[in-house]
Design goal:
about 250 residues; alpha/beta; 7-stranded mixed β-sheet; 10 helices; 9 strands
Length: about 250
């Protein structure tokens, strides 16, 4: 169970700023490469759709700036096997698909999971994307995802239920089974649950985890309206972390 007082204590005994300094150069180098590639990609038609929370009632019909980061990450790192948890309207999913190099698109595998099934007509333009409706922790959903990929994946993008327990459980489950090269955690500063989760990951993973929103703050490249302060974390994963990090 999530314990709220842990947040206060955690801030007192962990100097997260010191950990952040370790990651800066690696993060800047990757970010510059990713955004350079991302800005070249046409993301017309990749939109967020219906807003949530404070944005409820609004409809976003243009690509959010962080979509270019996702597309650029896929393109620059030559990724083609991608799992997304949290589809919504599919703007991020489609952006990542657009980032796949043409020579890899036919053999690419892109899976997105959500409890809803929105934007059906637009998804028909992306035959390489497989949609699975249901909870990302449902036993049958997990089974279908694992069976679809017959190899380690390149990218795991998590943007679903933003509570500590849910995200950590999905993180541990899919990372150990699919061994992604990269993990992207969205909304790492959205609430206290996500703040604690990200700080725990930073302490454990050190220079293999960094916040691209912090890196891009000067240029506001990831300033995306309601997600302005929500953050986006990137983890360079290694299979050697599985046992010691996720055994708990």
């Amino acid at each position: 169970m999530f314990i709220w007082w842990n947040l206060i204590g955690f801030r007192n005994y962990i100097n997260i700023e010191a950990v952040e300094k370790i990651t800066q150069q690696k993060g800047y180098d990757l970010f510059e490469q990713v955004m350079k590639e991302g800005q070249k990609i046409d993301l017309t038609g990749c939109y967020y759709g219906e807003g949530h929370g404070l944005d409820k009632g609004k409809f976003h019909n243009k690509p959010f700036p962080y979509y270019y980061f996702l597309a650029g990450l896929v393109r620059s790192q030559k990724l083609s096997n991608i799992l997304e948890l949290g589809t919504h309207f599919g703007g991020a999913t489609m952006s990542m698909s657009r980032g796949i190099n043409k020579e890899n698109i036919k053999k690419s595998r892109v899976v997105t999971v959500d409890i809803t099934n929105k934007n059906i007509e637009e998804f028909k333009k992306y035959p390489n994307i497989k949609r699975i409706q249901g909870s990302d922790l449902d036993e049958q959903v997990v089974k279908r995802v694992i069976e679809f990929f017959d190899r380690p994946i390149d990218l795991l993008y998590i943007d679903s239920n933003h509570t500590y327990d849910h995200v950590m459980e999905t993180f541990a489950l899919y990372v150990t089974k699919l061994n992604p090269k990269y993990i992207v955690l969205d909304d790492i500063h959205l609430n206290l649950h996500m703040e604690l989760l990200w700080r725990n990951l930073k302490v454990k993973l050190k220079d293999r985890a960094f916040d691209v929103t912090e890196i891009s703050r000067r240029g506001n490249l990831l300033d995306v309206g309601r997600r302005k302060f929500a953050g986006m974390g990137v983890i360079l994963w290694d299979e050697s972390y599985n046992e010691q990090f996720l055994a708990k």
